[in-house]
Specification:
By secondary structure, chain A is an all-alpha fold. Chain A is 67% helix and 0% strand. The chains are: A mainly alpha (82), B mainly alpha (224).
């Protein structure tokens, strides 16, 4: 795996943990410990996202940065390990 | 509004094209129990739902389904990359190819184009959530059926992830239902009816109580 694919996988894993807790909290809004865990995963995801974007270009269109990096491959449907 | 994130929810990196597999997996792109129908169903149902938990679940799960649509599209795209005419013919993908080339078109495995006729937005929370619980199970079975035809770990891995999400979503919809849409609320409404109509005898009331207890136990078993 490339460094890019490894970092992307790491970010996706942490983002997924945060998302899973987020939808759990939709039906359990008073679960404080789940809320705390979600905030911790969100914090880790933000740090990994910044690291990824500084190395490999923006993940969302709103951020300033290299316009060429935004329009360039790989897009999500491309094999990230090629 | 929606903001795009230039990544998949779960990685899809398929090394070997397999048009025969693409031909069946496309059903989860635009088929009757596919991800496009799922996202449209939840994102359309949420407008008239009166409960905060259910609004949130429909919005968040509907949005996640859009991410799943992108994953299924990616799987089909990577499975149909760089094919020769002979490979397309041998896999029986020629009928699709003549209309769509290697484009990703929302259709069922049978070739029937995507249709909103396979979903419902009833505007009634109990009805809509029951539809959603059924939809998650229908999608789960479709992924189970797809897995019967898969022998490539690069394909099995993301399909298993998608299958697992159907189960988690089913759980969340079940909780949304229990929190807001059944049990106590229905019992209270029925009691109001009983007190208003003084014609009811004690015997009838007991029968209704028994029916409610059975109804709640039944629901509880279904949703736990």
């Amino acid at each position: 795996m490339t460094e890019r694919a490894i970092l992307l996988k790491k970010l996706s894993a942490v983002e997924f943990a945060a998302h899973e807790l987020h939808i759990y909290l939709d039906t359990h809004p008073d679960d404080v410990s789940a809320g705390k865990a979600m905030n911790e995963y969100d914090r880790q995801a933000n740090a990994l996202r910044l690291e990824f974007e500084s190395k490999f270009g923006p993940l969302t269109p709103g951020e300033d940065g290299n316009r060429w990096a935004w329009i360039s491959d790989p897009w999500p449907w491309n094999n990230q390990e090629d | 509004m929606f903001v795009y994130e230039k990544k998949l929810q779960y990685p899809v990196n398929i090394k070997n094209p397999n048009p025969a597999l693409a031909k069946i997996i496309i059903s989860q792109y635009g088929g009757p129990d596919g991800e496009l129908g799922a996202s449209l169903r939840y994102l359309s149902q949420r407008y008239t739902v009166p409960y905060p938990e259910v609004k949130a679940v429909l919005t968040d799960i509907g949005t996640e389904e859009l991410g799943h649509l992108e994953m299924v599209g990616t799987i089909v795209y990577q499975l149909t990359k760089g094919l020769t005419v002979e490979e397309i013919k041998a896999a029986g993908l020629d009928a699709y190819f003549v209309d769509h080339t290697a484009g990703i078109y929302p259709s069922a495995a049978s070739g029937v184009p995507f249709s909103a006729a396979a979903m419902q937005v009833k505007g009634d929370p109990i009805t809509d959530i029951h539809e959603d619980l059924a939809a998650e199970q229908k999608a789960r079975v479709t992924y189970d059926n797809i897995l019967r035809f898969c022998d490539d770990p690069d394909v099995i891995d993301p399909i298993r992830f998608l299958r697992q999400r159907e189960i988690v979503h089913y759980q969340r919809f079940g909780e949304a239902m229990r929190t807001k849409c059944n049990g106590l609320v229905m019992v209270m409404n029925t009691y109001k009816l009983i007190f208003v109509s003084e014609m009811l005898s004690l015997w009838k009331e007991l029968c209704i109580m028994l029916y409610l207890v059975i109804y709640i136990l039944h629901n509880h078993c279904l949703l736990t």
